Amino acid sequence: MPLFFSPSARRPRRAAFTLIELLTVVGIIGILAAILIPTTSSARNAAKKAKTRGQFAQWGSAIEAFRQEYGTYPVFETAGAGQNKVNGNTAGSAVLTGQHRFYETLVGTRRDGTALPTTTTGTPAPPQAQNIRRIQFITFTEADIVPVSTTDASLLTKRGLIRDAFDGTDIAVLVDRNLDGSVKFGGVGGDGITALPTVRPPDNTTGQPFAPTTADFPAAAQGGVRAGVVFYTLPPKATSNTEFILSWK
């Protein structure tokens, strides 16, 4: 007797997920995402911290080159809220003709490339009176300076200012003014630094500012920091003085 098979009998059954299997897969994906996303964020932050320290090293090398050329470290801002800060008292603006002591002293021109003024008097001495040969000790790239053409709302007030890898512009800079091999603050034998400047994280312009702890930056009586130039700043979301990015650590 002949056998007859229907088309449906010859067609293999298609595999399909059951609802339970589908929910299991979704759950596994969720767990992996919860594990990987924070790890990726941490790696990104670590990379930016490393980049910031790299910037500090480049800026410090330029300041050391200045000292080798002129015999003393340059003097940046010595008064006001911007005392001992990379950006000093310069406000962010789309106009780059305003004085920026750090940039002008190390580059020998205004930020827009124009020549420095001829005036040589002032306290402290203006950049043109310090870098009298107009030597360019460093080239600042766009990674170092907030573009004046930016449309990023979070950067509008920082246009034209020197920045770290987190777009932070509140950056302290201190030098070994008396050339004894250490940067010190307070007490006898210091470098004219009565107190460490405080800085704020880039995403906090109104909250409490912080200065490094004595564990990170010993006072003059404890020898200070063994370096000629030091920088420090805070990363985003920093809430204490234990989270500093330090050039010497």
Summarize the topology.
Layout: H1 7-10, H2 19-70, H3 101-107, H4 127-130, E1 172-175, E2 229-233, E3 245-246
Antiparallel strand pairs: 1-2, 2-3
What does this structure look like?
It is a single chain. Helix content is 27%, strand content 4%. It has 249 residues and is mostly helical. It has one domain. A three-stranded antiparallel β-sheet has the order 1-2-3, with helices on one face. The mean pLDDT is 89.
Secondary-structure element pattern, one letter each: HHHHEEE
Radius of gyration over C-alpha positions, nearest whole angstrom: 28 Å
The global form is: globular
Main beta-sheet strand count, sense and barrel state: 3 strands, antiparallel
Number of domains: 1
Assembly category: single chain
The first-to-last residue Cα distance is 91 Å
Mean pLDDT: 89
Q: Percent range for helical residues? A: 25-40%
Sequence of strands across the biggest β-sheet: 1-2-3
Number of helices: 4
Number of strands: 3
Contiguous low-pLDDT stretches (5 residues minimum) are none
Proportion of residues in extended strands: under 5%
Which structural category do the helix and sheet elements fall into?
A: mainly alpha
Short recap of the structure:
The protein is 27% helix and 4% strand. It has 249 residues and is mainly α.
Question: Which terms summarize this structure?
Answer:
single chain; 249 residues; mainly alpha; 27% helix; globular
